[in-house]
Amino acid sequence: MTPQPAAVDGEVFRQAMRRLPTGVAVLTTRGPHGMTINSALSVSLDPPLLLVAIGHRTRTHGLLAHAESFTVNVLGAGQRALAARFAGRRAVGEFGGVDWHPSPVTGDPVLVGSPVSIDCRIDRRIEAADHTLFLGAVRHVHSTGGASDPLVFADRDYRRLAEEPVP
C-alpha cells in the first residue's frame, strides 16, 4: 500500500493560489443581485458551457440555488471600483448608481461598460466541499467589440496585464 501524503493546510493552499492570476467579473442574477468573482471557467465550446464556483456562505449562493440563470460580466482594467463594490463574502452588491440593463435573453443584469457579458441558463449544480459549481449553458454573449484590457486579480490585489509579450 502506498503511503498517503499529509493533508495540505487550507491557509497554505490559499497562499499558493494567490500567485495564480485570474480574471475578474461580476456575476449577476435577477433581483438585481451581483457578486464579484474570479472563478469563471470556460468548460466547453461545443456546446458552450461556463462554470462558476460559489461559496456556500455567500448570499449569492442562496440566490443561485433557486435561480434559472446568471450572467457573468467580465470587467475591464478601468472597473476596479465596480469590482470592489460587489466584493465580499456576504455581498449581494447594491445596484444604486450602477448602469445596467436586463438581458433580453435571461433578464439578468448586464453591466454597462463591461467588455463582455455572458448569459447562462443553469444546467447543473455540483456540490464540491464548501462551494457549489454552477455549470451554465451559454445562451448569449454581449460584447462591446473594443480592445481587451482585462481587470486581473493576483496576490490579493487588482492588476492590469503587461503590454509586453512573453518572448
UniProtKB/TrEMBL annotation:
Keywords: Oxidoreductase. One of its GO terms (molecular function) is FMN binding. It comes from the Bacteria. Gene3D superfamilies: Electron Transport, Fmn-binding Protein, Chain A. InterPro entries: Flavin_Rdtase-like_dom (IPR002563), NADH-dep_flavin_reductase (IPR050268), Split_barrel_FMN-bd (IPR012349). Residues 17-160 form the Flavin reductase like domain. It holds the Pfam family Flavin_Reduct. This is NADH-FMN oxidoreductase RutF, flavin reductase (DIM6/NTAB) family. It comes from Saccharopolyspora kobensis.
